[in-house]
Predict the structure of DUF2293 domain-containing protein.
Amino acid sequence: MDLVVIEPEPRRRRHCAECRQGPLRFHTLEFNAVICLNCADLAHLVHLPRGDAALTRRAREASSLWAVVVRRNRRRRRYERQGLLVEAPALARAEAACLADADARARRRVRDAARREAEDVRFTAALSAEILRLFPACPPSRASAVAAHTSLRGSGRVGRTAAGRALDEGAVTAAVGAAVRHEDTPYDALLMAGVPRNAARARVAPVVEAVLTTWRTPP
C-alpha cells in the first residue's frame, strides 16, 4: 500500500495535531489526526509534481522512501494525485537520466503519436461504417460526424468505452441517439432553461426515436 500525503485545499488551513505548526502545505493522517511532515519523519522528501511520467517513474524507483501526494477535488468528490514526495538525491539522479535520453524519448513519443493517430483514423472509419449499417438512411456526413465526435481520444464518450471500441450495437445506437438528441431536438435549450436532465430527455425521447426509426429504414 502506498504511503499517502495530503495537499490541503487552498481554503482549508490545517495545523499539526502534535506540534501545532501550520498552516501546512502537506500533511499525513494518523488515526484521523493531521500530522505535519516533520512529525511524520517525511520532511526530508521533496515534491515532484505530476506531469512527467518518465521522471516520476525513475524518481520513484531511485527513492528508498516515497509518498503519493493527493488533493481532494470537491466537485468530483474524490482525491486526485498531485505528484510524489521523493528523496532529493533520487530526484537528481532521475533528472540526469531523463536528460541523457531525452532525444530518444522524444522520438518515441512522435512515433507513438503517429501510431495512435492512425489507429484513431481506422477506428473512426469502422465506427462510421457500422453506423451506416445499423442506420442505412442516415446521411453519410452525419454518420462521419457522429463517429468523429464520439470516438475522440480522451473524451470519455461512448466511442471510447470498451463496448464502443468493440462496435457493440447498443453502444453505437447510444452514440447516434445522443447526437440526435443534441442536434435535432430542443434538449440543450431545455437544459439551459433549468429543466432536469432526466425530464428533458423524456420530453425529447419521441423525437429521437422517430429520427432513429427513419434512419433504420433502408433508402
In short: Strands lie at 4-6, 27-30, 33-36, 45-49, 67-73, 78-87.
